[in-house]
Amino acid sequence: xxxxxxxxxxxxxxxxxxxxxxxxxxxxxxxxxxxxxxxxxxxxxxxxxxxxxxxxxxxxxxxxxxxxxxxxxxxxxxxxxxxxxxxxxxxxxxxxxxxxxxxxxxxxxxxxxxxxxxxxxxxxxxxxxxxxxxxxxxxxxxxxxxxxxxxxxxxxxxxxxxxxxxxxxxxxxxxxxxxxxxxxxxxxxxxxxxxxxxxxxxxxxxxxxxxxxxxxxxxxxxxxxxxxxxxxxxxxxxxxxxxxxxxxxxxxxxxxxxxxxxxxxxxxxxxxxxxxxxxxxxxxxxxxxxxxxxxxxxxxxxxxxxxxxxxxxxxxxxxxxxxxxxxxxxxxxxxxxxxxxxxxxxxxxxxxxxxxxxxxxxxxxxxxxxxxxxxxxxxxxxxxxxxxxxxxxxxxxxxxxxxxxxxxxxxxxxxxxxxxxxxxxxxxxxxxxxxxxxxxxxxxxxxxxxxxxxxxxxxxxxxxxxxxxxxxxxxxxxxxxxxxxxxxxxxxxxxxxxxxxxxxxxxxxxxxxxxxxxxxxxxxxxxxxxxxxxxxxxxxxxxxxxxxxxxxxxxxxxxxxxxxxxxxxxxxxxxxxxxxxxxxxxxxxxxxxxxxxxxxxxxxxxxxxxxxx
Length: 613
Prior knowledge:
Layout: H1 5-20, E1 21-22, E2 25-26, H2 36-52, H3 66-71, H4 80-95, E3 111-113, H5 122-125, H6 130-150, H7 157-184, E4 185-191, H8 195-205, H9 211-232, E5 248-254, H10 285-297, H11 301-306, H12 311-335, E6 349-350, E7 357-358, H13 359-375, H14 380-396, H15 410-413, E8 417-420, E9 431-435, H16 438-452, H17 456-475, H18 506-524, H19 531-553, H20 562-580, H21 585-612
Helix pairs in contact: 1-2, 1-18, 2-6, 2-18, 4-7, 6-7, 6-10, 7-12, 8-9, 9-12, 10-12, 10-13, 12-13, 13-14, 13-16, 14-16, 14-17, 16-17, 16-18, 19-20, 19-21, 20-21
């Protein structure tokens, strides 16, 4: 299925507007206001495209395009639409702020109990989660950018008052989210003979290297990174003293929530008291990827150009950037630990902290590798091997291959991969987190990699894979009842999947929206140049220029100036082809062929006239 980002985003916006607005007012519905993660994801389905794609902008009513107004008519007209979105964002900020004026980041119904016969307490559902911290960064930056333009475009006093309130609340929430991410980062140190150490050694050695060989290679590979982390202890990274011992293994990344005993972060911003941490100091691949996604938005061109961060937030952002870079270097090194056979190529990945294995974790490590490849100049070998991994994951997940009878892979999509949240048992019942968005994450990472790739073969393979995964995702939209046009109806593509009863999946919907924005960016890039085609085009241009010069030596026939007009048109077309030869050699090639055809027609006409004489 060809990906048409503009049309698909319009379809999604129409579905979101139909689901979330009533007579122009935002309606949270039955499941709204119960999870800060889900509520942020729903708002981002609108705000992310509206702030990233000029054609979808809503903050300048005079420039809002007609097809956008048509699909968003349930949300209001040209002037009311941005005001109603401001009101919805303000309601979100009020809803997810505690009585003590402190921003809250509740996981809500995204948390589930490991004991299906018992339900979690309200206090447990109110515990902040890294997913909310990260999603809040993306949402707050989108809101602040939206307000920066829209506040000068409206004269309604009630909207101006709400904008002032919203800007303050959004800035506070952004600061609180950044502080919370800093306090959720952890470096876990363990011995090679521990259960976690044996799992990591087995993962890295792949049954072909001894424990001593793996440890020696680990020491050499990560000695600079280990030194950087130790040096960073003075910058607020809380790590165990054992990290200085090179005979100890380690992992870094984000826990599922604030880490137990994590020190408070000094800040002058009015974010209220900083809550106690509950999570064990163990990194989770899923939450690490989520954190990296949010932190990356702090350094986007849009954030820097619009000046969305104040001085205190810039300081926090630099601290997060340090952890972002350390984490990417670590997991990218782990994924490619053995250059002959990457551990990442040994699917499925096995986690060390939770003792789980799944294609989802392979995708999570691949996502970090994609982050790293986007950050540095990737080699063709890196790209080719990563493309192979993506294709294998799509096949193993039965996205591009046939589902077998009683196929256990269905569990990857429904009910999804379950993560036990270590440390949650100290708050009551043991908690867990389910990930059902494998296909959406695969689409997002494939498109990111496709945008990165400037290798023709790799780019074409990735684009075909993205189209296959997107076709799979598009069929999973809900077709009737609540949430028509959004996600997720797993039964549509996996008929043997158990029936799902619950809220629509704003997580999957938001990730599809992100992928469409990324595809839009990909198509805005210049096409990949073929050196062979460029050389051939230049040869054709040389021949065309020579033949045109020869044609201009001939006397013009008596045809009322038509011959001269033809030559001038050929000159214009040839000049255009010459201008495009470097950036779009295929287009230049086509134009030059047309020129050669026209020149040949003129030559044949002259030869025929000469024979007649």
